[in-house]
Amino acid sequence: MSKGRPLLEAVAGPLTTESRGRGLKMARASVCDTVGVRGHLLTTTSVWRRNEKGRQVVDVVCDCGTRKTILASSIGRVKSCGCYQVKHPARLRHGMSRTPIHTRWLAMKYRSTGFHPGYEGVGRDPRWDRFEEFYADMGPTFFDGAYLGRIGDVGDYTKDNARWITPAESGVEATNRFARRMPDGRRVIDAAIELGVVRPRTALARVDAGWDPDDAIRRPPRFSGRWHQK
Q1: How far is it, in rounded angstroms, from Cα 166 to Cα 230?
Q2: pTM of this structure
Q3: What span, in angstroms and rounded, lies between the C-alpha atoms of 221 and 155?
């Protein structure tokens, strides 16, 4: 049910099945045929009209006194002119989206799903599902250009096992992960490609997690089909 439906039914009466989809937007616009229609903190001060783009708009005034023009279809959905969030700061987000540290947090969440190639079995602290908790633990030590790594490039992403590293250190860790070797001296990645049972990155992640190298390349993965070298 649309958030604006109770308002529409109170002003225009019960809505029929014809009010679904585009019809519901038209119903909202028809409510604005009169002045004084109220939706949350907004009250219409004009009937709807079409703007230069041909869209149905209506003038409204907020309880705080601000006047603005909004889409007629927004009546009952838009709460205020924007003052509502200012008066209710608890509803505001952290305000750090698209910052470098927020980008590192998103990348960490993507890698710690447990199935990301090269990071199979890697998890994270449940608290770090929320950026605010992650920032409280790792924000004070973040520096410009830092990447989030793990001590020894093994284990889960936790406060005690995660650290900020430079781009150069990040490259060294990635290189070391491909250098793991079998008892006979072959690289794990080469042995996995030759055998073709699991993906090379999966075999590397298993060895990093403490698996026997031979077992790491021979045991089929649990959640995917057999991998074949192309």
Answers
A1: 35
A2: 0.44
A3: 19
